Recover the amino acids of this structure.
């Protein structure tokens, strides 16, 4: 598999453990600051854990707990995303959101949510009557009682953002070690990390291991301060025919436990319904379940009746790294030169860039300083947003490989030859959308097996069959 | 292309090619056939075993050879075939947006025939529980692995389904060194008749009726499935899941257009001429309903081609139509619309019906409340049912299929 070559010398200023959205953002931020960074990932690709499955919303933080670190970092992360997304080729779909109350009881809570939102510094909030809300989105069920409009909530591509962060970090000299697990660590002025691929000497560690945040802290010999309690979320993705019915993000009135079932458009022109919030002990299995998926479809059609009967394109499930507490578990240990970014159970996509800045600040508190690079290399990733110019619209794309998502041969070849090539089939799908459409590879899977031979950790074909 | 074509045919499987050939035979000048692949034949291309072509060409072909015959026929007939052209959008005005290696272009025609075929439903649309590892594929995917690339996605799959295509799937496995672990059918009976009743025992593959997957297990590749069978949960070790059948029309062009799809068939609703709600748009072949044989699709395409050749000589039909309605165990009818017609011959002389489930009872066709045809029997899902479509049905205000179920 296409491992980044191991470094000539295995000595770094900072090791970031975990290449989820937070780890990728942290690697970028430290690299931008001039640190020599190694990003260590157990999986075959970035986003192998919690980060691959979320609702792809760039949050404002209107409903984050007041004066919490989460609120501060969501706001900082969002602000930076809005600054950099264009130059990195990232998506942003300005949909806005409606927090919808489906009962008088829920409607009674909207005012509190609005007040909280204003205290959180979000000004673009508007309480609406059901009629006013349905004027902005006529497909909403007439069971709507009232709504709160949050203009600043947007949709993004949850996979291209971390890919861009890491690509930029690599352009600044960061080393990415995938398929590499941190087994043990010892601190003696500097860290000596024993990994499945050898020894790394580093000045400081940032634990961004998500679902394994507590495990990694223990392996590093750090006193555990939290325990990961995985919370599963299942999602259903509807056919692109649903897109026209859902122009905005439809949020429920949240409970203590979860933001609840969201119905929202995706950057790729689909509609997503989910997530559930299911506590479990298993950190590996994120299964989908027939009955739950059926219930999500029913819920979606209750909220937007026009969704009834629209075919399902995809289903997925992810695990969120929740802990015993709702708050982020950010721990700085100056005496050990270690930072743990734990318990990012939700909002990680929005807060990642903020978390990265915060981690750098905490690290500066350790008394270390880097010399920022003299020049910033220009980096961008393909923008796969449905409404953007895509490769299929340009001559010379070679062929359409995936017709449902209109993915070209040139796009797939470019992904395979990119600085962060996909390590597994999921990674290829996330980078190109090949096989993500309504036929789910009925047509293109075999062609992709051919094009990716020898390139993926788990090949699509078991071996060479008989020649045709 | 600045000059509009007379007819654009979208999809070069049996139905599309047959429509194009018929249009040319009837003297239609400019017939453009758009095919996203680089060969004609559609789904028949990767079917190495099913015989094709007996009725249309008087001899038997196997998948790839049938496709080559279609290519030869289209070339000789002067059809303008464009390979590597994938239609992105159907315009309501007789235009289509197309991408090809040359980029995008908008093509125009006086009429459009969509013959985009059908495909099997993937795991996601079936909402099957479990992990989502590599190795869960459909028959079509398996057959394109072996037919086009000499690859195999698994060695020991569990096969789901008992339609005719399931038999084909098993034969493909056996011919390419894969050994199915078991074959599962959710219902109490095989959906296809013989040889599914005897093939599994002949090959030693257990055929479990009333069995369904309740969990797919595997982190990277499939490692096992859990099934519910005879009231018990069992684990079957395997390295793949082969989902067979449950075809659905590949009707996304309609689904995303204002024309939409029929709730019963999931394909475009068409009238007795194969004409959709939009009088410029026609459809034929398996995009109308899942799923018929290649030969059936060919004949259907030819009929629609003949009607379109006649339709070109007149103004487009008026948009008004009446819908055909039906009682519940009936899943779909084709056609599902009727229009007053000025054409001498329609494309369909029968209603094609399918049942959603097994049912015993009397099926009647009622025109304005009057039964004009009825038949009693035992009706099975996924089997073709034909009912007459008499010319006077086009004059009725209400056309309804009634079903009186007997317990």
């Amino acid at each position: 598999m296409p491992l980044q070559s191991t470094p000539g010398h295995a000595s770094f200023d900072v090791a970031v453990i975990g290449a989820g959205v937070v780890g990728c953002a942290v690697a970028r931020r430290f690299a931008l600051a001039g640190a020599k960074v190694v990003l260590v990932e157990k999986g075959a690709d970035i986003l192998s854990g919690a980060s691959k499955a979320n609702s792809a919303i760039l949050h404002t933080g209107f409903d984050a707990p007041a004066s919490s670190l989460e609120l501060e970092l969501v706001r900082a992360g969002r602000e930076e995303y809005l600054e950099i997304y264009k130059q990195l080729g990232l998506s942003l779909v300005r949909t806005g959101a409606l927090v919808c109350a489906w009962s008088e009881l829920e409607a009674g809570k909207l005012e509190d949510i609005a007040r909280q939102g204003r205290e959180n510094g979000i000004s673009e909030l508007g309480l609406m009557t059901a009629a006013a809300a349905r004027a902005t989105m006529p497909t909403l069920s007439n069971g709507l009682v009232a709504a709160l409009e949050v203009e600043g909530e947007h949709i993004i591509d949850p996979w291209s953002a971390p890919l861009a962060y890491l690509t930029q970090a690599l352009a600044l000299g960061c080393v990415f070690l995938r398929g590499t697990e941190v087994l043990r660590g010892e601190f003696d002025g500097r860290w000596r990390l024993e990994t499945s691929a050898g020894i790394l000497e580093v000045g400081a560690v940032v634990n961004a291991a998500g679902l394994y945040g507590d495990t990694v802290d223990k392996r590093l010999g750090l006193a555990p301060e939290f325990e990961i309690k995985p919370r599963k979320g299942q999602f259903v993705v509807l056919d692109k025919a649903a897109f026209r019915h859902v122009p905005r993000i439809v949020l429920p009135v949240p409970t203590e436990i979860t933001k609840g079932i969201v119905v929202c458009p995706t950057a790729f022109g689909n509609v997503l319904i989910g997530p559930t919030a299911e506590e479990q002990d298993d950190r590996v299995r994120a299964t989908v379940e027939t009955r739950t998926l059926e219930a999500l479809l029913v819920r979606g059609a209750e909220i937007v009746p026009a969704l009834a009967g629209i075919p399902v394109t995809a289903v997925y499930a992810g695990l969120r790294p929740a802990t015993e507490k709702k708050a982020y578990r950010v721990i700085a240990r100056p005496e050990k030169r270690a930072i743990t970014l734990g318990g990012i159970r939700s909002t990680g996509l929005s807060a990642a860039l903020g978390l990265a800045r915060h981690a750098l600040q905490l690290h500066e508190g350790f008394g270390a300083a880097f010399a920022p690079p003299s020049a910033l290399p220009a980096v961008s990733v393909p923008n796969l947003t449905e409404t953007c110019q895509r490769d299929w619209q340009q001559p010379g794309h070679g062929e359409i490989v995936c017709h449902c998502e209109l993915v070209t041969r040139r796009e797939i070849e470019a992904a395979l030859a990119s600085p962060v090539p996909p390590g597994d089939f999921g990674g290829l799908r996330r980078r190109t959308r090949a096989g993500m459409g309504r036929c789910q590879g009925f047509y293109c899977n075999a062609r992709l097996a051919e094009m990716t031979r020898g390139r993926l950790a788990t090949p699509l074909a078991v071996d060479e069959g008989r020649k045709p | 292309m600045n000059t509009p074509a007379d007819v654009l045919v979208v999809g070069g499987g049996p139905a599309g090619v047959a429509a194009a050939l018929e249009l040319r035979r009837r003297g239609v000048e400019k017939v453009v056939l758009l095919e996203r692949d680089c060969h004609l034949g559609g789904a028949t291309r990767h079917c190495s075993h099913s015989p094709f072509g007996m009725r249309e060409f008087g001899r038997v072909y196997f998948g790839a050879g049938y496709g080559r015959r279609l290519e030869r026929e289209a070339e000789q007939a002067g059809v303008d075939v464009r390979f590597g052209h994938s239609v992105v959008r159907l315009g309501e005005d007789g235009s289509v947006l197309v991408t090809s290696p040359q980029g995008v272009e908008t093509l125009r025609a006086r009429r459009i025939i969509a013959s985009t075929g059908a495909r099997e439903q993937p795991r996601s649309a079936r909402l099957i529980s479990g992990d989502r590892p590599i190795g869960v594929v459909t028959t079509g995917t398996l057959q394109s692995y072996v037919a086009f690339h000499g690859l195999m996605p698994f060695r020991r799959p569990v096969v789901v389904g008992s339609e005719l295509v399931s038999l084909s799937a098993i034969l493909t496995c056996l011919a390419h060194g894969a050994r199915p672990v078991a074959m599962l059918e959710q219902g109490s009976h095989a959906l296809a008749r013989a040889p599914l009743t005897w093939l599994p025992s002949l090959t030693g593959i257990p055929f479990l009726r009333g069995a369904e997957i309740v969990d797919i297990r595997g982190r990277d590749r499939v490692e096992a499935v859990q099934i519910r069978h005879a009231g018990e949960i069992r684990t079957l070790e395997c390295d793949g899941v082969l989902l067979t059948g449950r075809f659905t029309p590949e009707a996304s062009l309609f689904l995303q257009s204002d024309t939409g799809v029929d709730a019963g068939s999931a394909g475009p609703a068409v009238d007795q001429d194969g004409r959709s709600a939009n009088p410029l748009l026609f459809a034929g072949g398996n995009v109308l309903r899942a799923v018929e044989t290649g030969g059936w699709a060919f004949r259907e395409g030819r009929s629609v081609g003949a009607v379109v050749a006649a339709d070109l000589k007149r103004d487009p039909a008026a948009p008004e139509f009446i819908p055909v309605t039906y009682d519940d165990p009936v899943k779909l009818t084709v056609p599902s619309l009727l229009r007053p017609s000025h054409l001498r011959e329609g494309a369909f002389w029968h209603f094609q019906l399918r049942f959603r489930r097994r049912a015993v009872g009397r099926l009647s066709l009622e025109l304005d409340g009057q039964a004009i045809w009825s038949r009693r029997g035992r009706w099975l899902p996924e089997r073709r049912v034909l009912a007459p479509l008499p010319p006077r049905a086009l004059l009725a205000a209400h056309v309804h299929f009634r079903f009186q179920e007997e317990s």
Chain A touches chain B through 57 residues (CB under 8 Å). The radius of gyration of chain A is 22 Å. The CA atoms of residues 254 and 260 of chain A lie 6 Å apart. Residues 11-53+159-228+324-364 of chain A form a domain with the FAD/NAD(P)-binding domain fold (CATH 3.50.50.60).
